[in-house]
Amino acid sequence: MSDRIDHLLNETRRFAPPEALAGASATSAALYERAREDRLGFWAEQARELQWATPFTEVLDWEPPHARWFHDGTLNVAVNCLDRHVEAGHGDRVALRWEGEPGDRRTLTYADMTAEVKRLANVLTSLGVRAGDRVAIYLPMLPEAVAAMLACARIGAVHTAVFGGFSPSNLRGRIDDAGATLVITTDGAWRKGKVFPLKPTVDEALREPGHGVTNVLVVRRGENEIEWTPGRDVWYHDAMAAADAEHEAEAFPAEHPLFILYTSGTTGKPKGILHTSAGYLTQTAFTHRHVFDLKPESDVYWCTADIGWVTGHSYIVYGPMANGTTQVMHEGTFDTPTPERPWQIIERYGVTVFYTAPTAIRTFMKLGRQHTQSSDLSSLRVLGTVGEPINPEAWMWYREVIGGGTTPVMDTWWQTETGAIMISGLASVTTLKPGSAQVPIPGIDIDVVDEQGEPVGDGDGGLLVVTSPWPSMLRTIWGDDDRYRETYWQKFGDRYFAGDGARKDDDGEIWLLGRVDDVMNVSGHRLSTAEIESSLVAHESTAEAAVVGASDETTGQAVVAFVILKQRFADELTVEESEAVLRKHVAAEIGAIARPRQVFIVPDLPKTRSGKIMRRLLRDLAEGRDLGDTTTLADQTVVDAIRSQLR
Ligand code: PRX
């Protein structure tokens, strides 16, 4: 890691913002000044950009580790994302240009989306959903997914979106933990040229009793055959046709819960990250506007994240829609029917701001620039990336090949927990360095500290902390405030521990080095080693398992498992059979994203004398590196035995 960073820190290329963006730079530059002078006053000004039913009088109430922002104000999040744009005369502005994978298209204006969400709010109410109730959203990239989230927000219900690739047991775990009473799903969606069924996963998840779900609302999309449970299942289109078109939105307190989003931690149990209303909306809207220099009147924005992850929440639904943005939404995968698809979409809609993940960029690079050349990409003026460190080669390729050598590439660091972008340049101001996430955004205080919590100097590395509360911070872990305190606050008191390693360069700018805990980052998705280990151990053939994230050229990290089989199975199955069975098992138990790239069947695992698995050694083995110091190993022969198994 340190070799890599030393190499990166020698990066000398610098890219100033292009002339065309210079107009916005004075305003954006002044934001740093203003936030430095009066941080809370600055955030209060940003919050006042929203439409409040009752204005707040107090900005922040901070009793570490619990923050309340703007707490005596009230507003309605959905009204801020929809109705107020219509009231301001922008009802005809396109909100979503949606393109289905087979090529079908839909255009929804802000007036259309407002009407859809009002009706859907009535549907939810008629199904018994009240403010504070939890609704699970298991939907792919359909406009109805956006409508579902905003309809929950409109009635004060708390949504918990579950990524469409997750398995029945994962979906059930989240439904139970959140105590959801309604699930919104679809029959199926298009993916890689086929309909991928979703409703059967919901049926399977709900098969065993003991959950609190009373209804399943089903959007028709795939037209695939599905089972139907009368009395429980409701077609979305039937319910919408029967619902009243008018809906009076109620204002909720600023700290009213908005959503729970589960993310992997260092134990087998995912954490339900709780976000609340006004602070979250303030920071997502602010960052979306200033990081990307977004102009709602003229920009066409496309964020390629899935709605089931936090980027979909913050930078497809809440931030962009609070800003009245016109955006593109795409169902399916980038390579269907051909790898030209994303570039054709950019040309077709004249996309100006494009936000994607380093993994996608590296995949585009591997496919080659020829796929980009038949499309006109000259509309693009700002590019963004998120989810994992971006290597300078990928950054340069993105700028040169996609951005025509002139567009700024904004590398944005943040997390499910932070809710919104925390470290990034601002497109119109920042002179960019390929590979660095740059500096905290205005109003955010970040530091890099050593294990004892002492700030490191410029040029040194350590652990990333956020030193002051921020508006879009998580408020707790749903149902487990102790875990919230332990995970994020125990280490450094009233400073938030992000779990990432970072280094400050000689200019004090920040370079992210990846996770310092047992959380992997595969294609920008967080996976827990413990969760995959417990899934492997649950399989009848496994005696013991250890999982590590090994570096991977395309996906950043890849899941690599080391498994000791129970003797009976070791005798019966070939190594290849065991590997295939276990890879399939993890995909079925957790979801395809967690499927190990490799499963090594090994005779033993390297452990310290106190019995702790030495993951560093396993990572080195998986990456084919020299093992360095192995003197803490209890049994030195284990490594040789494992090495002889690696092919
Ligand atoms: O390790 C960091 C990495 O992704 C983690 C957060 O993952 P998640 O909550 O799933 O949210 C992803 C989308 C916001 C972080 O702890 N990460 C995210 N963005 C970057 C990054 N690492 C380096 N550079 C980034 N720009």
Characterise the protein shown here.
- With 647 residues, the chain is an alpha/beta fold.
- It folds into two domains: 387 residues, 3-Layer(aba) Sandwich (Rossmann fold), CATH 3.40.50.12780; 128 residues, ANL, C-terminal domain (GMP Synthetase, Chain A, domain 3, 2-Layer Sandwich), CATH 3.30.300.
- It is 33% helix and 23% strand.
- The protein contains 21 helices and 30 strands.
- It has a seven-stranded mixed sheet, sandwiched between helices. Strands 7-6-8-11-12 form a five-stranded parallel sheet.
- A hairpin with a 2-residue loop joins strand 26 and strand 27.
- Helix 14 packs across helix 15.
- The chain is globular and about 75 Å long.
- 51% of the residues are buried.
- The mean pLDDT is 93.
- The chain binds adenosine-5'-monophosphate-propyl ester.
- Adenosine-5'-monophosphate-propyl ester (PRX) binds next to helix 12, strand 20, strand 24 and strand 25.
- The site of adenosine-5'-monophosphate-propyl ester has 22 residues, from helix 12, strand 20, strand 24 and strand 25.
Key terms for this structure?
647 residues, alpha/beta, Rossmann fold, GMP Synthetase, Chain A, domain 3, 2 domains, 7-stranded mixed β-sheet, 5-stranded parallel β-sheet, 30 strands, 33% helix, binds adenosine-5'-monophosphate-propyl ester
